[in-house]
Amino acid sequence: MSFGWHARRVADSRLPLRVRVAALRSCVQLYRPLGFHGTLDRLAWLAGPFQRDEEALLRALAVLEEDRSRWLAELDAYARSRRTGKRCGRRMPREGERNPNDRAYWSV
Q1: Which residue windows does the record flag with biased composition (Basic and acidic residues) (predicted)?
Q2: Residue 71 near residue 100 (C-beta atoms within 8 A)
Q3: How many domains does the chain have?
Q4: Of 40, 43, 108, nearest to 74 (Cα)?
Q5: How big is the chain by its Cα radius of gyration, in Å?
């Protein structure tokens, strides 16, 4: 299933809280810039105890979705930049050019 599908399950108040928390963990499994546990810890630190608090769960989802959308925008900008560079004959990225596809990108 996709990130969006799991995110909709997190936001669905008709589902039991434990199912919604599991859906958030599935979102983190699909987008984990700090690793699975690191991302969950960061969400708990920013949003509160989302495992037992519905409002904290929604805050955690909002943080994760905002962070992911920013990353997707950076990926898109990088892809456009690389296509332009390739058309100009630069087949390799310039030294120092940060690549959002690279895990090291997130450690800075």
Answers
A1: 92-101
A2: yes
A3: 1
A4: 108
A5: 17
Say how far apart CA 52 and CA 49 lie, in whole Å. 6
Joined tokens for residue 90:
């630069």
Q: How many residues does the chain have?
A: 108
Half-sphere exposure of 44 (CA within 13 A, CB side): 11
pTM score, whole prediction: 0.81
Helix (H) or strand (E) holding 88: none
Instruction: Provide the pLDDT for residue 1.
Output: 83
Read off the amino acid at residue 25.
R
Give the model confidence (pLDDT) of 59-108 as tens digits. Answer: 999 999 999 999 999 889 888 988 888 888 877 777 777 777 776 666 54
Six token digits for residue 39: 């991302």
